[in-house]
Amino acid sequence: MPRPEEELIALLIKHGVDFTASLPCEKIKVLLEMVERSFTHVPLTREEEGVGICAGAALSGKRPAIFVQSSGIGNMINALLSLTSFYELPLALFVSHRGIYQEKIEAQVPMGQRLPGILTGAGITYTEINKPKDLVFIDNELRAVYADNKIRAFLLSPAVWEGSECKSPALAGGKISISPHAAEIKKLQDVPTPTLTRYDVIKAISRYLEGKVVVSNLGWPSKELFALKHQSSNFYMLGSMGMVTPIGLGIALSSKKEVVVIDGDGSLLMNPGTLATAAFASPANLTIVAIDNGAYGSTGNQPTLAASCVDLELVARGFGFRNTLKVAGEKELVEAMKEKRKGPAFLHVLAIPGNKDVPNIPVHHLEIRKQVQEFLSK
Protein backbone atom coordinates (compact mmCIF):
# COMPACT_ATOMS: atom_id res chain seq x y z
CA MET A 1 0.00 0.00 0.00
CA PRO A 2 1.55 3.37 -1.00
CA ARG A 3 2.03 5.63 2.01
CA PRO A 4 4.52 8.28 0.80
CA GLU A 5 3.63 10.78 3.52
CA GLU A 6 4.62 8.27 6.19
CA GLU A 7 7.85 7.51 4.32
CA LEU A 8 8.79 11.17 4.33
CA ILE A 9 7.93 11.58 8.01
CA ALA A 10 10.13 8.57 8.78
CA LEU A 11 13.05 10.15 6.91
CA LEU A 12 12.65 13.38 8.83
CA ILE A 13 12.69 11.49 12.11
CA LYS A 14 15.68 9.43 11.01
CA HIS A 15 17.73 12.55 10.38
CA GLY A 16 16.73 14.28 13.58
CA VAL A 17 14.46 16.99 12.22
CA ASP A 18 12.93 18.51 15.36
CA PHE A 19 11.53 21.89 14.29
CA THR A 20 9.09 22.57 11.44
CA ALA A 21 7.14 25.45 9.97
CA SER A 22 4.66 25.65 7.11
CA LEU A 23 2.11 27.45 5.04
CA PRO A 24 -0.68 25.31 3.57
CA CYS A 25 -0.90 23.82 0.10
CA GLU A 26 -3.84 21.69 -0.99
CA LYS A 27 -1.53 19.18 -2.69
CA ILE A 28 0.28 18.31 0.56
CA LYS A 29 -2.46 18.93 3.11
CA VAL A 30 -2.29 15.38 4.49
CA LEU A 31 1.48 15.57 4.81
CA LEU A 32 1.26 18.90 6.62
CA GLU A 33 -1.28 17.60 9.11
CA MET A 34 1.04 14.66 9.84
CA VAL A 35 4.03 17.02 10.23
CA GLU A 36 2.08 19.11 12.74
CA ARG A 37 1.32 16.00 14.80
CA SER A 38 4.86 14.60 14.62
CA PHE A 39 7.14 17.58 15.32
CA THR A 40 7.37 20.94 17.01
CA HIS A 41 5.49 23.01 14.46
CA VAL A 42 4.88 26.71 13.78
CA PRO A 43 2.06 27.75 11.40
CA LEU A 44 3.29 30.72 9.35
CA THR A 45 1.52 33.76 7.95
CA ARG A 46 4.23 34.40 5.32
CA GLU A 47 7.06 32.24 4.06
CA GLU A 48 9.75 34.85 4.72
CA GLU A 49 9.02 34.89 8.45
CA GLY A 50 9.56 31.15 8.47
CA VAL A 51 13.14 31.67 7.30
CA GLY A 52 13.80 33.91 10.29
CA ILE A 53 12.06 31.60 12.76
CA CYS A 54 13.99 28.59 11.48
CA ALA A 55 17.25 30.55 11.60
CA GLY A 56 16.63 31.19 15.28
CA ALA A 57 15.85 27.52 15.81
CA ALA A 58 19.05 26.51 14.02
CA LEU A 59 21.07 28.91 16.16
CA SER A 60 19.56 27.13 19.16
CA GLY A 61 20.77 23.75 17.93
CA LYS A 62 17.57 22.57 16.23
CA ARG A 63 17.30 20.88 12.83
CA PRO A 64 14.61 22.91 11.03
CA ALA A 65 12.52 22.17 7.94
CA ILE A 66 10.01 24.40 6.14
CA PHE A 67 7.08 23.22 4.01
CA VAL A 68 5.76 25.65 1.37
CA GLN A 69 4.55 25.66 -2.22
CA SER A 70 6.40 26.97 -5.27
CA SER A 71 5.06 30.51 -5.07
CA GLY A 72 6.33 30.83 -1.52
CA ILE A 73 9.94 30.55 -2.64
CA GLY A 74 9.54 33.94 -4.28
CA ASN A 75 8.81 35.43 -0.87
CA MET A 76 11.87 33.79 0.70
CA ILE A 77 14.84 34.35 -1.61
CA ASN A 78 16.36 37.44 0.04
CA ALA A 79 16.05 36.01 3.56
CA LEU A 80 17.44 32.66 2.42
CA LEU A 81 20.52 34.33 0.96
CA SER A 82 21.15 37.21 3.38
CA LEU A 83 20.33 35.23 6.53
CA THR A 84 20.34 31.45 6.27
CA SER A 85 23.07 31.11 3.64
CA PHE A 86 25.09 34.10 4.86
CA TYR A 87 25.33 32.72 8.38
CA GLU A 88 25.74 29.15 7.10
CA LEU A 89 22.71 27.77 8.89
CA PRO A 90 21.01 24.49 7.94
CA LEU A 91 17.53 24.47 6.40
CA ALA A 92 15.61 21.83 4.49
CA LEU A 93 12.99 23.25 2.12
CA PHE A 94 10.17 20.89 1.16
CA VAL A 95 8.41 22.56 -1.74
CA SER A 96 5.09 21.46 -3.17
CA HIS A 97 6.06 21.90 -6.82
CA ARG A 98 3.01 23.43 -8.46
CA GLY A 99 2.52 24.33 -12.11
CA ILE A 100 4.25 21.29 -13.62
CA TYR A 101 1.93 18.30 -13.22
CA GLN A 102 -1.82 18.33 -13.91
CA GLU A 103 -2.04 21.91 -12.66
CA LYS A 104 -5.53 23.42 -12.76
CA ILE A 105 -4.54 26.91 -11.62
CA GLU A 106 -2.80 28.76 -14.44
CA ALA A 107 -1.29 31.36 -12.11
CA GLN A 108 0.80 28.59 -10.55
CA VAL A 109 2.50 27.76 -13.85
CA PRO A 110 5.02 30.63 -14.30
CA MET A 111 6.67 30.20 -10.90
CA GLY A 112 6.47 26.43 -11.02
CA GLN A 113 8.20 26.23 -14.39
CA ARG A 114 10.93 28.70 -13.50
CA LEU A 115 11.56 27.46 -9.96
CA PRO A 116 14.57 25.23 -10.81
CA GLY A 117 16.24 28.12 -12.62
CA ILE A 118 15.50 30.52 -9.76
CA LEU A 119 17.03 28.16 -7.23
CA THR A 120 20.06 27.58 -9.45
CA GLY A 121 20.55 31.31 -9.89
CA ALA A 122 20.34 31.78 -6.12
CA GLY A 123 22.94 29.07 -5.56
CA ILE A 124 20.48 26.81 -3.73
CA THR A 125 20.84 23.14 -4.59
CA TYR A 126 17.66 21.17 -5.13
CA THR A 127 16.39 17.66 -5.75
CA GLU A 128 13.32 16.87 -7.82
CA ILE A 129 11.06 14.22 -6.27
CA ASN A 130 8.73 13.30 -9.13
CA LYS A 131 7.36 9.94 -7.97
CA PRO A 132 7.13 7.99 -4.70
CA LYS A 133 10.25 5.93 -5.32
CA ASP A 134 12.27 9.17 -5.61
CA LEU A 135 11.81 9.72 -1.89
CA VAL A 136 14.94 7.61 -1.34
CA PHE A 137 16.99 10.49 -2.76
CA ILE A 138 16.10 12.54 0.32
CA ASP A 139 18.01 10.20 2.64
CA ASN A 140 21.65 11.09 1.93
CA GLU A 141 20.90 14.66 0.91
CA LEU A 142 19.00 15.46 4.10
CA ARG A 143 21.92 14.18 6.13
CA ALA A 144 24.20 16.66 4.35
CA VAL A 145 21.89 19.61 5.14
CA TYR A 146 22.60 19.32 8.85
CA ALA A 147 26.14 17.98 8.61
CA ASP A 148 27.35 20.77 6.31
CA ASN A 149 25.02 23.62 7.42
CA LYS A 150 23.50 24.05 3.97
CA ILE A 151 20.17 24.93 2.40
CA ARG A 152 18.64 22.28 0.17
CA ALA A 153 15.26 22.30 -1.55
CA PHE A 154 13.26 19.17 -2.28
CA LEU A 155 10.75 19.80 -5.08
CA LEU A 156 7.79 17.51 -4.44
CA SER A 157 5.63 16.83 -7.49
CA PRO A 158 1.91 16.27 -6.84
CA ALA A 159 2.42 12.89 -8.55
CA VAL A 160 4.24 11.69 -5.43
CA TRP A 161 0.99 11.58 -3.45
CA GLU A 162 -1.23 9.94 -6.07
CA GLY A 163 -2.91 6.82 -4.75
CA SER A 164 -1.64 7.35 -1.22
CA GLU A 165 -3.44 5.43 1.49
CA CYS A 166 -2.64 8.10 4.07
CA LYS A 167 -5.64 10.10 5.23
CA SER A 168 -5.94 13.07 7.54
CA PRO A 169 -8.32 12.50 10.46
CA ALA A 170 -8.41 16.19 11.24
CA LEU A 171 -9.57 17.14 7.74
CA ALA A 172 -11.66 14.14 6.75
CA GLY A 173 -14.84 15.57 8.23
CA GLY A 174 -14.26 19.09 6.98
CA LYS A 175 -13.55 20.37 10.50
CA ILE A 176 -10.67 22.53 11.63
CA SER A 177 -8.87 22.36 14.93
CA ILE A 178 -9.06 25.35 17.25
CA SER A 179 -6.54 26.40 19.85
CA PRO A 180 -7.60 25.35 23.39
CA HIS A 181 -7.64 28.99 24.51
CA ALA A 182 -9.68 30.26 21.55
CA ALA A 183 -12.99 30.13 23.43
CA GLU A 184 -11.47 32.15 26.27
CA ILE A 185 -10.17 34.81 23.89
CA LYS A 186 -13.48 35.10 22.07
CA LYS A 187 -15.36 35.38 25.36
CA LEU A 188 -13.07 38.16 26.61
CA GLN A 189 -13.58 40.08 23.38
CA ASP A 190 -17.33 39.41 23.24
CA VAL A 191 -17.12 38.17 19.67
CA PRO A 192 -20.45 37.36 17.96
CA THR A 193 -21.09 33.82 16.76
CA PRO A 194 -20.74 33.38 12.99
CA THR A 195 -23.63 31.81 11.07
CA LEU A 196 -22.78 32.43 7.41
CA THR A 197 -20.32 30.78 5.05
CA ARG A 198 -18.21 32.91 2.75
CA TYR A 199 -20.64 32.15 -0.08
CA ASP A 200 -23.54 33.36 2.09
CA VAL A 201 -21.66 36.55 2.89
CA ILE A 202 -20.96 37.33 -0.76
CA LYS A 203 -24.55 36.54 -1.66
CA ALA A 204 -25.84 38.91 1.01
CA ILE A 205 -23.65 41.82 -0.13
CA SER A 206 -23.82 41.16 -3.87
CA ARG A 207 -26.55 43.71 -4.56
CA TYR A 208 -24.38 46.41 -2.97
CA LEU A 209 -21.46 45.66 -5.28
CA GLU A 210 -23.28 46.80 -8.40
CA GLY A 211 -21.23 49.29 -10.42
CA LYS A 212 -18.29 49.24 -8.02
CA VAL A 213 -14.77 47.98 -8.57
CA VAL A 214 -14.57 44.71 -6.68
CA VAL A 215 -11.18 43.11 -6.07
CA SER A 216 -11.64 39.55 -4.89
CA ASN A 217 -9.29 37.22 -3.07
CA LEU A 218 -7.84 34.27 -4.97
CA GLY A 219 -9.32 30.77 -5.18
CA TRP A 220 -12.80 30.04 -3.89
CA PRO A 221 -13.75 33.65 -3.03
CA SER A 222 -13.29 34.72 -6.65
CA LYS A 223 -15.14 31.67 -7.98
CA GLU A 224 -18.03 32.28 -5.61
CA LEU A 225 -18.17 35.96 -6.53
CA PHE A 226 -18.23 35.09 -10.23
CA ALA A 227 -21.13 32.67 -9.65
CA LEU A 228 -23.11 35.23 -7.65
CA LYS A 229 -22.28 38.65 -9.09
CA HIS A 230 -20.16 38.70 -12.21
CA GLN A 231 -19.61 42.16 -13.66
CA SER A 232 -16.93 43.71 -15.82
CA SER A 233 -15.64 45.75 -12.88
CA ASN A 234 -14.67 42.63 -10.89
CA PHE A 235 -10.95 41.91 -10.69
CA TYR A 236 -10.65 38.22 -9.87
CA MET A 237 -7.38 37.26 -8.19
CA LEU A 238 -6.01 33.99 -9.57
CA GLY A 239 -2.67 34.00 -7.73
CA SER A 240 -0.41 36.16 -5.51
CA MET A 241 -1.88 35.50 -2.09
CA GLY A 242 -1.81 38.51 0.21
CA MET A 243 -2.04 41.04 -2.63
CA VAL A 244 -5.79 41.64 -2.85
CA THR A 245 -5.91 44.60 -0.44
CA PRO A 246 -2.77 46.21 -1.96
CA ILE A 247 -4.38 45.98 -5.43
CA GLY A 248 -7.61 47.51 -4.16
CA LEU A 249 -5.66 50.26 -2.40
CA GLY A 250 -3.78 51.09 -5.60
CA ILE A 251 -7.03 51.37 -7.56
CA ALA A 252 -8.68 53.51 -4.88
CA LEU A 253 -5.75 55.93 -4.87
CA SER A 254 -5.78 56.16 -8.67
CA SER A 255 -9.51 56.41 -9.34
CA LYS A 256 -12.65 58.08 -8.06
CA LYS A 257 -14.59 54.83 -8.40
CA GLU A 258 -15.85 53.13 -5.26
CA VAL A 259 -13.62 50.15 -4.51
CA VAL A 260 -14.62 47.09 -2.47
CA VAL A 261 -11.97 44.55 -1.53
CA ILE A 262 -13.09 41.04 -0.60
CA ASP A 263 -10.21 39.78 1.50
CA GLY A 264 -9.78 36.88 3.92
CA ASP A 265 -8.09 36.14 7.22
CA GLY A 266 -5.32 33.98 5.73
CA SER A 267 -4.51 36.58 3.10
CA LEU A 268 -4.51 39.49 5.55
CA LEU A 269 -2.32 37.63 8.01
CA MET A 270 0.20 37.06 5.23
CA ASN A 271 0.58 40.79 4.51
CA PRO A 272 -0.91 42.77 7.43
CA GLY A 273 1.36 45.76 6.92
CA THR A 274 -0.71 46.83 3.95
CA LEU A 275 -3.43 47.86 6.44
CA ALA A 276 -1.05 50.45 7.89
CA THR A 277 -0.36 51.74 4.38
CA ALA A 278 -4.09 51.94 3.63
CA ALA A 279 -4.78 53.78 6.90
CA PHE A 280 -2.01 56.26 6.15
CA ALA A 281 -3.05 56.86 2.54
CA SER A 282 -6.67 57.04 3.73
CA PRO A 283 -8.63 56.81 0.45
CA ALA A 284 -12.26 57.69 1.15
CA ASN A 285 -13.46 55.37 -1.65
CA LEU A 286 -12.05 52.11 -0.20
CA THR A 287 -13.97 49.46 1.74
CA ILE A 288 -12.28 46.25 2.85
CA VAL A 289 -14.66 43.36 3.52
CA ALA A 290 -12.54 40.93 5.53
CA ILE A 291 -14.33 37.56 5.51
CA ASP A 292 -12.85 35.73 8.47
CA ASN A 293 -13.75 32.03 8.60
CA GLY A 294 -10.66 31.05 10.56
CA ALA A 295 -9.45 28.80 7.74
CA TYR A 296 -7.37 28.66 4.58
CA GLY A 297 -10.45 27.81 2.52
CA SER A 298 -8.70 27.27 -0.81
CA THR A 299 -6.11 24.79 0.47
CA GLY A 300 -8.15 22.39 2.61
CA ASN A 301 -9.60 24.47 5.48
CA GLN A 302 -6.49 24.34 7.63
CA PRO A 303 -6.94 26.78 10.56
CA THR A 304 -5.49 30.27 10.45
CA LEU A 305 -4.39 32.10 13.57
CA ALA A 306 -7.62 34.11 13.34
CA ALA A 307 -9.35 30.93 14.52
CA SER A 308 -7.59 31.14 17.85
CA CYS A 309 -5.76 34.29 18.85
CA VAL A 310 -6.14 37.12 16.32
CA ASP A 311 -8.97 39.67 16.10
CA LEU A 312 -8.63 41.27 12.67
CA GLU A 313 -10.77 44.27 13.57
CA LEU A 314 -8.44 45.08 16.45
CA VAL A 315 -5.49 44.57 14.09
CA ALA A 316 -6.98 47.06 11.61
CA ARG A 317 -7.64 49.60 14.37
CA GLY A 318 -4.11 49.13 15.67
CA PHE A 319 -2.79 49.94 12.20
CA GLY A 320 -4.78 53.17 12.12
CA PHE A 321 -8.26 52.36 10.75
CA ARG A 322 -10.94 54.36 12.52
CA ASN A 323 -13.97 53.21 10.58
CA THR A 324 -14.31 49.54 11.53
CA LEU A 325 -17.16 47.19 12.35
CA LYS A 326 -17.47 43.53 13.29
CA VAL A 327 -20.55 41.60 12.11
CA ALA A 328 -21.61 37.94 12.04
CA GLY A 329 -25.24 37.83 10.91
CA GLU A 330 -26.92 38.64 7.59
CA LYS A 331 -29.05 41.49 8.94
CA GLU A 332 -26.09 43.34 10.46
CA LEU A 333 -24.03 42.67 7.35
CA VAL A 334 -26.63 44.12 4.99
CA GLU A 335 -27.11 47.18 7.20
CA ALA A 336 -23.36 47.75 7.23
CA MET A 337 -23.16 47.60 3.42
CA LYS A 338 -26.16 49.92 3.01
CA GLU A 339 -24.64 52.54 5.26
CA LYS A 340 -22.70 55.26 3.48
CA ARG A 341 -19.42 55.20 5.36
CA LYS A 342 -16.36 57.24 4.53
CA GLY A 343 -13.34 55.13 3.82
CA PRO A 344 -11.04 53.61 4.35
CA ALA A 345 -13.53 51.29 6.01
CA PHE A 346 -12.81 47.85 7.44
CA LEU A 347 -15.74 45.46 7.75
CA HIS A 348 -14.75 42.37 9.74
CA VAL A 349 -17.22 39.64 8.81
CA LEU A 350 -17.06 36.50 10.92
CA ALA A 351 -17.98 33.37 8.97
CA ILE A 352 -17.88 29.60 9.22
CA PRO A 353 -15.53 27.48 7.07
CA GLY A 354 -16.77 25.93 3.85
CA ASN A 355 -16.68 26.36 0.07
CA LYS A 356 -19.62 26.36 -2.33
CA ASP A 357 -19.31 23.87 -5.17
CA VAL A 358 -19.10 26.35 -8.03
CA PRO A 359 -17.20 26.00 -11.32
CA ASN A 360 -13.94 27.69 -12.20
CA ILE A 361 -14.03 31.17 -13.71
CA PRO A 362 -14.33 30.69 -17.51
CA VAL A 363 -12.74 34.06 -18.35
CA HIS A 364 -9.09 34.35 -19.40
CA HIS A 365 -6.99 36.35 -16.97
CA LEU A 366 -6.05 38.91 -19.64
CA GLU A 367 -9.73 39.43 -20.43
CA ILE A 368 -10.37 40.01 -16.72
CA ARG A 369 -7.70 42.71 -16.76
CA LYS A 370 -9.07 44.26 -19.96
CA GLN A 371 -12.63 44.50 -18.64
CA VAL A 372 -11.54 46.18 -15.41
CA GLN A 373 -9.27 48.60 -17.28
CA GLU A 374 -12.12 49.57 -19.59
CA PHE A 375 -14.45 50.12 -16.63
CA LEU A 376 -11.90 52.32 -14.87
CA SER A 377 -11.24 54.38 -18.01
CA LYS A 378 -14.88 55.41 -18.36
**DSSP helix count?**
17
Looking at the chains present, what oligomeric state does this protein adopt?
single chain
Overall pLDDT metric: 89
Q: Could you name the CATH class of the largest domain?
A: Alpha Beta
Largest beta sheet: strand ordering = 2-1-3-4-6-5
Q: Which stretches are low in confidence, meaning pLDDT under 50 for 5 or more residues running?
A: 171-183
Molecular shape: elongated
In the residues, how many domains can be counted?
A: 2
User: Span between N and C termini?
Assistant: 60 Å
Whole-angstrom Rg: 21 Å
How much β-strand is present in the residues?
A: 15-25%
Largest sheet features: 6 strands, parallel
The CATH topology annotation of the largest domain reads as Rossmann fold
- Output the structural class: alpha/beta
CATH superfamily of the largest domain: Thiamin diphosphate (ThDP)-binding fold, Pyr/PP domains
Helix content, binned percent: 40-55%
CATH architecture of the largest domain, please? 3-Layer(aba) Sandwich
Number of extended strands: 14
